[in-house]
Amino acid sequence: MVGRPDERLSACLERLVSSFDRERHRASDPVRFVHRYVSPADREVVGLVAALLAFGRVRSVSQSVERVLERLGPSPAATIERSTRAQLTRRLRGCRHRMWGAAEFAQVLSAAARLRRREGSLGRAFAQRWSASGGDLREAIARWADALRGRRPTRTLRSLVPDPRSGSACKRLLLYLRWMVRPDDGIDLGLWPLPPSILLVPLDTHVHRMARNLGLTRRATASWRTAEEVTDALRRIDSQDPVRFDFALCHLGVSRACRSRFEPTTCLPCALRPVCKHARRASDMDLVATPRLSRRSDRRR
Ligand code: SF4
After folding, report:
1. Do 2 and 51 belong to one domain?
2. Is 71 near ligand 1, meaning CB less than 6 Å away?
3. Mind listing the pLDDT tens digit for each residue in 285-298?
4. Considering the entire predicted model, what is its pTM?
5. Is 54 in the pocket of ligand 1 (CB under 6 A)?
6. 287 alpha carbon to ligand 1 midpoint, in Å?
7. Which domain holds residue 207?
8. How far is it, in rounded angstroms, from Cα 135 to Cα 238?
């Protein structure tokens, strides 16, 4: 493939996104919980639950989100609106995900209900903080997360709702923003009044690995700074919507369609092969030619 590096990367990412089986991958993604609901109010509340719990194995995340949503009834937004924090704690008793339990979930959900009451929606509350911080995404997330944690948060609560000021990549909060802000494309929902150009990529292990495969970053840790660097690289390809590649990149790793090492079965059909460092290395070592050679030897037989 010829062209400048950004053009090659752009062509490969476009090919990946256009050929990606979004329906199939959505079925295993926590965003599917949000799509079960119709009203924007329920969607933003369910999105908050699903995104905050999106930490760990797919199966255990699904079970935990399912359990919390069951307890919140058919309209989670209405339930949190009419419940006190103590009532929510009782309702959510027995719900647990990793180190978080009913007390943390009830705190976040009652703070979310308060924000919705005062400012109209979680989206408006976020947009207000974004403009008050002069369009500084990190500061807007920090202020919005402060409001969800409340005063004197415990360490456990601070891990459920992280603070980007600490340098954390805040993958779950950025994932939630992606769902709420990016235009409705069957995965993301386009509910909040903000431009997708402000978003940063939610950098989990899979996206971080993919970004290193593609040379979008060389940083070894998945920090806020790394998320900025990866997003800057994607912004050169799509300045208006740089995180639109996130879903496909993430699910290549989740589904193990990419093992982040050269394997003929996964790499030969991969749309990203022309810009992937593992494929380049394999090609330098002549490994990419191996299957063709074996096909030739097959023909000879
Ligand atoms: S070429 Fe292979 S290692 Fe590289 S991104 Fe594709 S599947 Fe992953």
Report:
1. no
2. no
3. 776 554 443 344 33
4. 0.93
5. no
6. 14
7. 1-28+195-293
8. 19
